[in-house]
Design brief:
The complex is a heterodimer of chains A (about 250) and B (about 300).
Chain A lengths: L2 E12 L2 E12 L3 E5 L6 H8 L9 E9 L2 E2 L7 H7 E4 L10 H10 L6 H14 L3 H4 L12 H14 L4 E5 L7 H14 L4 E5 L3 H7 L2 E6 L2 E7 H6 L4 H7 L5
Parallel strand pairs in A: 3-8, 3-9, 6-7, 7-8
Antiparallel strand pairs in A: 1-2, 1-4, 4-5, 9-10
Helix pairs in contact in A: 3-4, 3-6, 4-6
Chain B lengths: L1 H46 L2 H6 L14 H33 L2 H16 L2 H19 L9 H24 L3 H9 L4 H12 L1 H17 L2 H6 L17 H10 L7 H35 L1
Helix pairs in contact in B: 1-12, 3-6, 3-9, 4-6, 5-6, 6-9, 7-8, 9-12, 11-12
The chains are: A alpha/beta (about 250), B mainly alpha (about 300).
Bound molecules: adenosine-5'-triphosphate and magnesium ion.
Adenosine-5'-triphosphate binds next to α1 of chain A.
Chain lengths: ~250, ~300
């Protein structure tokens, strides 16, 4: 297995406030990496560095290297649009566009100039199937996306991300607004698509991290305290702080 | 203690009463205006049939051979409004997209008030600006252009309306949640694609409301057209010749010395009523759209 991401000495700042401190971490392709840690410890900041979503925040800057497939994401050799082509993202709150279900899926393809209706149809169906929502929406593709339930909306957002065929998908607490059944569906879905994608997921749900991930990282106050095989982290953590956190004895 | 409280209770009641009375006063004023409008319009239609009013092609209440075809006046209103909108909609929307999606916060706080000054210039100034500056300028390009015409006041009116459209549309676009923009960026959209394909459609009902407000402002605008468009009711869509709008006609008659009770006098109310009807409907439409927009995001 080769490394998808190599992160070296990453420091990130909002203005003068440091949000990430000296992060070092490698992520292999076609694995699921879970990031856990208390609120405000920098998990979102971290994964938003990986698709340069933080570029939207004016006060943000970072130091250090984030190599994606061997090339630094911030070096100027990568175009931001190309990065987001390859590295998709699903957000905490479902954010479908206020358009039809179909248009939500085809949006990413159409902005890349794809016009062929047959291909658009085909990809729409494939993506919705992969996101395990096809059966629920196949008869109502022209309905407004906001008419779906929260769980369905989130799966639609996943389908929308799958449609542009990225190589990596970043999930920032994708299930925090969902009920256990929708959550189970999304976890199942992640395990299913893992063979094709590298997945990084931020979660507050320890069981979720334990269930889906191959490796886990524990963040605390902007530092990566511990990173390792999920099984090891949850059964035999090296750091006292990790142990306290996963056993709920924290703070 | 109890005495104090009862005293403040009395004061409370007094304030409440005063507020209620002033609310009542404004309601009665509105009712008064509407009932006079309705009454005089009713008197007017005792003498002129509604059919003639709506279908006659001429408007000549001051002549011996009287015609009361409101279409000639509405043609003028329609034409100037159309020209104003052709100017105001694209420029207003471009300003809105720029302010909401491209400008920094600092830039926005400076540019918005400057744009809004356009709406604060007295309209009579715009009127003379159209008549004495824009018309002569246009005449160099279009030799056929008459001294009074629909084109020049239409354009100037459009400039005046730009801030109405840009400001309200910008508010609507600004209210589109950041999460939608992030969703689009995460799919690889460029800034322009995010602005045009996500933010603009998402803010559409708010934008439409602003357009309708702009249109009803153009329809109701009086001074600019009274000064620069002429006083010749004409059923035409030619922007180069003198015309007269509904509002300009009302000014014309109001300034003259038509005795109360005559048919000429009553035309003011009949035309005023028609105008009120149109702008009222537009305002309701705009209100409904705004409400719909709010429901979608709050
Ligand atoms: N746009 C921003 N501007 C300034 N500071 C920010 C911004 N976003 C995050 N921060 C700060 O950076 C730190 C890390 O925030 P981050 O959102 O990465 O935490 P998190 O681990 O994702 O928390 P949560 O679990 O609550 O989502 C916090 O102290 C936060 O206040
Ligand atoms: Mg977060």
């Amino acid at each position: 297995m080769s490394d998808e991401f190599q992160i070296k000495n990453l420091n990130a700042f909002y203005g003068s406030k440091q949000a990430l401190k000296n992060i070092n971490l490698d992520i292999s392709e076609k694995t699921i990496t879970a990031l856990i840690g208390p609120s405000g410890c920098g998990k979102s900041t971290f994964i938003r560095c990986l698709n340069r979503m933080n570029d939207l925040v004016k006060s943000f800057h970072l130091e250090g290297d984030i190599l994606y497939q061997g090339t630094d994401l911030y070096s100027g050799k990568w175009d931001v649009i190309d990065i987001r082509d390859k590295i998709g993202m699903v957000f905490q709150k479902p954010n479908p566009f206020p358009k039809s279900i179909r248009e939500n899926i085809t949006f990413g393809l159409k902005i890349r100039g794809m016009k062929d209706r047959n291909i658009l149809e085909h990809i729409t169906e494939q993506s919705l199937k992969k996101a395990a929502i096809w059966d629920e929406v196949k008869d109502r593709l022209n309905d407004h996306a906001l008419s779906l339930s929260g769980g369905q909306q989130q799966r639609l957002c996943i389908a929308r991300t799958l449609a542009v065929q990225p190589q990596v998908i970043l999930f920032d607490e994708p299930c925090s607004a969902l009920d256990p059944i929708s959550t189970a569906k999304i976890e199942e879905l992640m395990l299913e698509i893992k063979k094709d994608f590298t997945i990084i997921i931020v979660t507050h749900n320890m069981q979720q991290a334990a269930r889906v991930s191959d490796q886990s990282g524990f963040f605390l106050l902007g530092e990566l305290i511990e990173m390792g095989k999920t099984q090891d982290i949850f059964t035999n953590p090296h750091d006292k702080r990790t142990e306290d956190y996963i056993t709920g004895r924290f703070g | 203690m109890i005495l104090l409280r009862s005293r403040s209770l009395v004061r409370e009641k007094c304030v409440e009463g005063a507020l209620f009375l002033s609310a009542l006063l404004s309601i009665f004023t509105t009712l008064g205006i509407i009932s006079i409008l309705i009454f005089e319009t009713y008197e007017f239609f005792k003498k002129v049939s509604i059919f003639d009013f709506l279908t006659d092609r001429q408007w000549t209440p001051m002549f011996v051979d009287k015609h009361f075809g409101i279409l000639s006046l509405f043609a003028g209103t329609f034409l100037t409004t159309l020209i104003a909108m052709v100017v105001a909609i694209p420029i207003g929307l471009i300003c809105a997209v720029f302010l909401s999606e491209y400008a920094s916060n600092r830039m926005r706080t400076y540019v918005k008030p400057i744009l809004e000054i356009l709406a604060a210039v007295p309209t009579v100034v715009y009127g003379y600006f159209a008549l004495l500056f824009v018309t002569p300028l246009l005449q160099k390009l279009i030799p056929d252009l008459a001294g009074f015409n629909a084109l020049s006041p239409g354009i100037v009116m459009g400039i005046m309306i730009i801030p109405i459209i840009s400001s309200l549309s910008e508010d609507a676009m600004h209210a589109v949640p950041m999460s939608l923009r992030e969703g689009a960026y995460a799919l690889g959209a460029t800034r322009l694609q995010v602005a045009l394909r996500v933010v603009l459609p998402a803010a559409l009902s708010g934008i439409t409301a602003s357009l309708i407000l702009g249109i009803s402002r153009a329809i109701g605008e009086t001074m600019i057209v009274a000064v620069a468009a002429g006083q010749q009711p004409r059923l035409t869509l030619n922007p180069l010749v003198p015309i007269e709008t509904v509002t300009a006609y009302i000014v014309q008659v109001s300034l003259g010395d038509t005795p109360a009770g005559t048919i000429e006098y009553q035309t003011i109310f009949a035309t005023g009523m028609s105008l009120f009807g149109v702008t009222f409907l537009l305002n309701i439409l705009s209100y409904k759209l705004k409400k719909k927009f709010r429901e979608a995001y709050e």
